[in-house]
Amino acid sequence: MNRSPIRLRGVIAIDGPAGVGKSTVARLVAKQCGLLFVNTGDMYRALTWRALKEGVDIKNKRAVVNFLSNRMNWDFHIHDGMLKVRVQHKDLGREIKSEKVSRATPTVAQIPQVRRRLRRLQRSFALNGGVVLEGRDTTTHVAPEAGLKIFLDASAEERAKRRFHQLLTDGKRVKLTSIQDAIRLRDYREKKKKIMPARHGPGTITLDTTHLTLHEVADRIIQLYKKSGEQQ
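Structure (tokenized):
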């Protein structure tokens, strides 16, 4: 990327593969550090949810881009330290967390025009600092100048277990083997992608979380943030 050599103080960017616990960790870090939590993935999920609801063929790239440009009526507001997505003045919660939306979102997220537009939107929330940005691309495209950039990693088996327990907590009946297969398939596809590669840029700190609890991971990031002197 050819951005100006600025530095976004008070910004933590957290990236990593599916199921690694990015959202939980980022939420804990934001709360402890008094920062705004921005889940960038929710924007892709909200777009996908609304497109499906409106009958848009998400495999038709032009149709999705046109929908985003002309019919996606959404806005954002802050509630309890988190950036919330609102569509047609309605807060979105469980609607965008469904399995149907989760399966369809990667198709929408791989569209180059969609990704570029949402990256710009996500970046706008980081420019004033005081933010934890969580999601793919945050360390490489959305906020490569963030004062602290973290790439979380863990084995596919451990990530599948975390996802499995999360879904059970949400009251969903799932099979661990099915989640393991889905994680491995997504990892394989992401390695092949040009839009959303599983990589991280210069200056990013990698944390292997396989043998750590998510609270332990959050504590390590908080320590790094305090040592970095990036507080606003």
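Strands lie at 8-15, 36-39, 74-79, 82-87, 90-91, 131-134, 146-153, 205-208. The domain at 10-225 is CATH 3.40.50.300 (Rossmann fold).
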